[in-house]
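Lab manual, section 2.4: Encoding a predicted structure.

Procedure: take the sequence of the chain (288 residues), apply the prediction step described in section 2.3, and record the output as structure tokens. A sample record is shown.
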Amino acid sequence: MNKKFTLSLIIFCLIFSFSQLTHAIDPGNRDTISLVVTVDTIKMTAAAELYVYNDEEISGASMGFFWDNMNFQMDSAKTETFINDAFDYGPFRFLRDTLDYTNDSLLFLFAGVNSNPPGVAANAGGRRIWTTYYFTISSWGGLATDGITFDTMTFSYGSEYLFVDINDNQIFPIWTGEFVFGNPTDITPIATPVLPESFQLSQNYPNPFNPVTNITFDIPVKSMVFIKIYNILGKEITTLVENKLSAGKYIVTWDGTASDGRKVSSGIYLYRIDAGNFTETRKMILLK
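Recorded output:
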């Protein structure tokens, strides 16, 4: 049996078995899937991390995604060890119209099933990365003018994204797609099973600090977000965040460096968030 036919048969069996199960309301907290895409504008690379939150044991999963800009070329994918161990069929990380590893159709699939429990263990602590997809950016100009969209999709083999628990219940997770534009080390999404209900800017920690401090903030809806640092006289020192972010909880760090690369002196500094119609300013102290 050739490789292409084998993959097709296993995917068909996976989708067929899903279709025979009964619908069920998610018995606990709503499961979520997130595709956190980070772009490195210097190295011309990108990574799409598939995050999943599940608070019940999962014996099967199926999730299809697409992107809409040919300047993104998928190079490879890596599935976390605990996911490889949990599924005895799959997991599949690529899908093209012909099941070839090309970028022509700009879509990919994650699918896996375990015929004999245990499957993916329940995780009450927050979402976890299942798989990371790696991209090369062939042209920055096209992205700057046309932008890019990542989203879920119903793929040609018949299933929308869903989980199956060990009691054979279908669970449809909430899609909370995220896009982080810029250097991936600048902003880090924080794993949380529940999305924020309101904008919030938290007090930095540690405070006072030397030399690095952390700033966390909540975004309840997709928004253009700015976080800037000012001195006590209101002069702008640097911009930490200038990104369009999806709903979620994030953390960003500041190491006392101004926009021109110099290290600032000890003193009181202000940090301010502007997101949609929300604005808030807090104080922090740098002690050397």
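Check your result against the sample. The chain has two domains: 3-184, 195-286.
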